[in-house]
Each structure stands twice: as C-alpha cells, then as structure tokens.
Design brief:
The structure holds 2 protein chains of 2 kinds. Chain A is built from 12 helices and 4 strands. Chain A is α/β, with parallel strands linked by helices. A 6-stranded mixed beta sheet of chain B has the order 6-7-8-3-9-10. The longest helix of chain B has 18 residues. In chain B, a hairpin with a 2-residue loop joins strand 1 and strand 2. By secondary structure, chain B is α/β, with parallel strands linked by helices. Chain B starts with a helix and ends in a 14-residue tail after the last helix. In chain B, helix 4 packs across helix 5, helix 4 runs parallel beside helix 6 and helix 10 packs across helix 11. The chains are: A alpha/beta, B alpha/beta. Chains A and B meet through helix 2, helix 3 and helix 12 of A and helix 5 of B.
Chain lengths: 378, 280
C-alpha cells in the first residue's frame, strides 16, 4: 500500500463475459476508473468472470467500489465469479460485503428536505422573536443582579470594575482621540466651503461645536467601543461557555452575571461618558485647526464664538447619551456571549452578531434621542 | 495481513531522541521500536513526555536530537511532499477528538478522502457512512455536528476519521479517557478488531489499565525522561523498577491485574469484559 508507487486501478474486458481487474484498488488509485465502472456492461449471459489476480493493492475504499460493481452485475440475475484474488484481499472483500449488505438493509437516513422560502421566513421570524424574548430575559436578570448588588454592596467586586475601566476606557483613548480628531477636521472642512460663500466664516465654531458635542462624539465613541470591547465581551464569555467555565462558576455558587456582566456594565457606564468628553475635546480641536487653515478663524476667535453658541445643554445631551450606549454595548455583547453553544464556530458567529447588533441598537437609540429631544424642544 | 517477513519490521524506530523545553529535559536519549501489526502502548505519569513523544512521531514537533523513523521514513529533514505522503499513511485520533466543528460527522470522516483522492462525493459519503458503522455508531450520527455528540461518540467519530484513508499506522491519544466503562469496553474491542482485520499497527497513549492488560501487546513505561521498561503487562508486572511498580501496586493496578488473571483462567481468548463495578 505504498502511496509512492500508485499504479492506478484499471479494468479491461478481454472477452464479453470477462473482466480483468488490475492495479491499485485503493482510495488513491480508484478515482481514475470510478466513472468507467458505472458504465461497465456485461452481455446477458448467465455467467461472468472477474479476474482479480492482478490487483496489486486493495483497501477498504477499493473493496467497497469492487463490491458495488459485483453487486450490480449480480443484481441482473447473473453469476459472477471473482477469481484469483489474493487471500488477504478476499478477506477484506468479505468484510466489506457484509457492510454493503448492512447498509443496503438500513434505509438511508432521510435527508430533511430543504425548507421552502415561506418556511424559511417563518423560521427566521420565530428565531428573531425567540432572541428578542431571550434578550429581554437577560436584561431582566441583569437588572435583578444589579439590584442584589445595590442591596449588598459588600458583595460587589470592585477589582474587575477597575480592570474593565482600564481595558475598555483608558486603553481606548488613542483610537477614540484620533478618530474624533479626524472627524472634527472633516466636519470643518466640509462646512468651510459653504460658510465662506456667505462670508459666515465664524459660524464654523457653531457647526463643529454643536455637531461634535451633540451627535458625532458620542456616536463615534460608542461605535468604536462596540467594535473594540463589545466583541471582546462576546468572545470572552462565549469561549468560557464552550469550555464549561460558566457552568463551573454556577456549580461553585458564583452567579456568572454578577461576576462577568455587572462589572462590565458599571465600568463602561463610567468610562464611556469620559471617553465622550475626550472625543469632544479632540473633535473640536480638529475643527479649530481646520478653521484656522481654511477660513482664517484663529483659535481665540473660535473659542470665543464656541462659548457663546454652544450651551451647556448641548454638551450634557451628548454626554447623557453615553451611559445608555454603554449599557446597550455591554448587554448585547454579554448576551450574545452567553448564547454561544457548541464550538469555535459559534464563538465567531456570536461575536459578529454582538458587534452588528450593538452598533445597530446604538444608532437606533441615537435616533430615538433625536426625536425625543426635538419633541421636548431642547 | 502482513506476511511473516514483515512482522519483525520496525514501523516506528526511535533512536536516542532527546527533547528539552528550556532547561527542562523531557526526553534524554529515548530509544524504542514498534513492530508491524502490534498494539503498542506508552504509559507514564503526567509530564513524563508521552504526548511530546507522540507529537514528535506525527510531525507536529521536532526533537532536539536523535532520529525517528516512521514507516521506514526518517522524519529528520523530510521534504514537504514526502511529509504529505507520509501523513496519508497514518491516522491520528486526538484526545479531544479534534473534529472540525463546522462540519457534520460524515463530512469530517470524508474530508481526508475529499482532499487526497479523486473519488466521487456520493461514494465518499457511502464510505464515510461505512467507517462510521465500523466504529459502532448509528447512521443518524453522521448528520450531526461534533458539538452534539457525547464523549464516547466523539471518540468513535474521531477514530472513524483517522481510518478514512486506510492508514497502516494508527496513533491513539487516550482513546478511553473520560468514557464510561461500557463505551471504554467497546473501544477495547474496536482497537483489537481493527488490528485483526486490517493488520494495523497501533500506538496508543493510555492510562486505562483494562485497555493495557487486555489489548496492548507491549507497553513502554516512560519516566524521568527515559524508557523504564518495555514488555507485555505481565512481564512488566515482574519488574522491580519503582517507576514501573507504581502502575501495579496501587489498588486499581492490583484490581486490574486480578481481573486479568481471573479472566485468563475462566476463558482463554474469549470475549472481553470489564468489571461493571469499576469506576472510570
């Protein structure tokens, strides 16, 4: 069975009722004649001979194919004698014959028919409802866990909170700062042309200040953190679920929600507003640089106008959204992590879902805030 | 079946293999030989380097010095093509199964065939279904994913995949660890059946005393970076080396030995049985 010297299997028909088999009837050698075998026909004589004397190697795959061929020829009511086969090959063929017969006896496992389009719509609707219900359940459980913690503050774990503030907050400063700085530049640059046409150069401070503080800074920060930390939460908890760490926690008597979810929520509710402030500062700074370069508005003038036009309310509106976004990101990330079951595949899927869903929900929440604020007139 | 001339041929030939992790010496000049058609077991305490030796034999790791020949091929300085050809001649069953989570069991078993042969998909599925049946699994299992399987089913499916290309040599890492006595007994029988039917050479790492007594032809005891003794279990049981004695003098060791004796007296070469009371 040395694969180095595979001489492919061959079948010849020296006489109408005689088949000459030769070569390596192995998994590697049989591929060449597999289709030829299906078309081998023997005239309708009552007897036929298959000569296996020149078969050099036979493995289970080859024996399987050979047995299938013999069965087909015999099935046409003919006696087929296989002769000349080496004794060890004959033994193998006997074993295979047994299994081929067994497999023929057993009805092939019924392949479940692929669902129709309507059924698929139904299934995904059902899955969506199930997921929403489960998410609500998870939110409820987290709220209960939070309430328990408030009732027993001594039980609360502060160390993971601090750790999470560092990993999700402090470590994210460079990327959040860089992106909001660039965003400030873009906003000022896009506005510059329009403002210059009306000679309203100084209003660049209004444009940059309001848009960054109210919308862009909280949103870009939340999106970065959803991609950066939300995915990490899902992957961490998902892997723990796969390796039974979550179950182990439960058996030891530690509530996984208390240990894994609450510190993350509290940490991000603290860290995200702070990150948003940082994003505000760098975004406005980016705008200032662009204002000076494109519109000739100096830093002094810019800040002067900025203080007059941007109220404290605008700043607070932006900061106020951040804790809500933080809660969304943590809850979705952890929820998807806990829903992981099976293996590596599932961890990847849930992580993707957590990022997509948390960004989606953050944007939806932002839109709802806008509607609410305009209704309230602030 | 191998002819008589082949029986003495060494399928695995390990000579003076040394391995170090930093300053820690895992193997110091280990030599051993596995013959064609035998069931060979490697035993030793945790950290004795059994798994490392196995990984070195299957080209996942290189020893620091010494030579390993598997199926007559020297693993040192092996080219990529030769390594690929060699890998197709052995099958490996990992301790955790190593089944691909994104494929069904049938796809897992058929994958080596799909990769390395020109066979038709339908035929590959049939062969995979047969290998599945050969390892004692129900046909329905084929459509399931590895995450849905129990530990014993997972091991059997992994074994079926290791057998996909009809290897000449089979490596089993802890084939019975974590199984209930009944499933473990099934694996005992399966391993023997495979050797008898296909003339496979089997090398396994195990701590399962029943498997050792009833299935293994020869056993090598690894400890302190050296082979402390090689022989059948009954030969080993008469050796005085303390590293070997540990396997026989514990309560479980004695029980397994007793059981083997009783069985040998009661029936010579009959069916295998495991004491049903024994905890795994």
């Amino acid at each position: 069975m040395k694969p180095m010297s595979v001489e492919p299997a061959a079948i010849a028909q020296p006489a109408p009722a005689e088949l000459a088999l030769s070569g390596s009837w192995t998994a590697r050698g049989i591929g060449a004649i597999e289709h030829q075998l299906e078309s081998v026909q023997v005239p309708s004589t009552p007897e036929a001979i298959a000569d296996g004397a020149r078969i050099e190697a036979l493995d289970t795959s080859g024996a399987w194919v050979l047995q299938k061929l013999l069965l087909r020829l015999r099935g046409e009511g003919r006696v087929v004698t296989l002769r000349g086969l080496r004794p060890e090959f004959a033994r193998l063929l006997d074993i295979v014959a047994q299994h081929v017969a067994d497999q023929a006896d057993q009805p092939a496992p019924v392949a479940s028919p692929s669902p129709t389009a309507l059924a698929r719509v139904g299934q995904s609707t059902e899955a969506a409802f199930e997921q929403t219900a489960a998410l609500l359940g998870f939110v409820g459980e987290s709220a209960v866990a939070l309430a328990t913690c408030v009732a027993h503050p001594a039980r609360f774990r502060w160390r993971p909170v601090l750790y999470n503030i560092r990993s999700a907050g402090f470590d994210a400063l460079p990327i959040v700062g860089l992106l909001s700085f660039l965003l400030g530049i873009v906003v000022a640059y896009q506005g510059a042309d329009q403002l210059r046409q009306y000679g309203a150069n100084i209003f660049v401070a209004d444009l940059v200040g309001l848009s960054m503080l109210r919308e862009f800074a909280p949103l870009i920060t939340a999106i970065i953190i959803a991609g950066r930390s939300g995915s990490a939460y899902a992957a961490q908890i998902g892997t723990m679920a796969v390796t039974e760490e979550i179950d182990a926690m439960r058996t030891i008597g530690i509530a996984p929600l208390e240990l894994l979810v609450l510190p993350k929520i509290i940490a991000l509710v603290i860290a995200l507003p702070l990150l948003t402030v940082f994003a505000d500062v760098l975004g406005v700074y980016g705008g200032m640089i662009m204002a000076r370069a494109q519109l000739g508005v100096g830093f002094g003038e810019f800040l002067d106008r900025f203080v007059k036009s941007v109220s404290m309310t605008s700043f607070m509106i932006g900061i106020g959204k951040a804790p809500v976004f933080a809660a969304i990101i943590v809850v979705i990330g952890c929820f998807q992590g806990f829903r992981t079951e099976g293996g590596a595949d599932s961890v990847g899927r849930q992580t993707t879902r957590s990022v997509v869903q948390s960004i989606f929900l953050v944007v939806v929440a932002d839109a709802l805030f806008s509607v609410a604020f305009s209704a309230l007139g602030i | 079946m191998p002819s008589e001339a082949h029986t003495i041929e060494a399928v695995i030939d390990i000579r003076k293999v040394s391995t170090r992790f930093g300053d820690y010496v895992v193997h110091s000049e280990i030599s051993l030989e596995v013959r064609r058609g035998e069931i060979f077991a490697l035993i030793g305490g945790s950290g004795s380097g059994k798994s490392t030796l196995l990984r070195e034999m299957i080209l996942l790791q290189r020893p620091d010095s010494g030579s390993i020949r598997v199926l007559g091929v020297d693993l040192q300085n092996l080219g990529d093509d030769d390594a690929l050809a060699l890998r197709q001649r052995w099958g490996v069953m990992f301790q955790q199964g190593g089944l691909f989570g994104s494929l069904t069991v049938t796809e897992n078993i058929g994958w080596p065939l799909r990769e390395h042969t020109a066979l038709d998909d339908a035929l590959i599925d049939q062969i995979a279904a047969w290998k599945l049946a050969m390892t004692g699994l129900e046909p329905e299992v084929g459509a399931q994913y590895p995450s849905e399987l129990s530990g014993g089913m997972m091991k059997r499916a992994a074994l079926a995949r290791a057998l996909a290309l009809d290897p000449e040599l089979l490596f089993l890492d802890e084939p019975t660890a974590g199984l209930d006595p009944d499933s473990a007994g099934g694996i005992d029988e399966l391993v023997r059946k495979l050797r008898d039917l296909f003339g496979l050479t089997i090398l396994m790492i195990t701590h399962d005393l029943d498997l050792l007594w009833q299935v293994a032809d020869r056993v090598a005891v690894l400890a302190e970076g050296k082979v402390q003794g090689i022989g059948s279990m009954s030969e080993l049981s008469h050796m005085d080396n303390p590293a070997i004695r540990r396997f026989f003098d514990g309560p479980r060791g004695r029980a397994a030995q007793q059981q083997e004796k009783q069985q040998a007296e009661a029936q010579s070469g009959g069916k295998l049985g495991r004491p049903s009371w024994k905890r795994k």
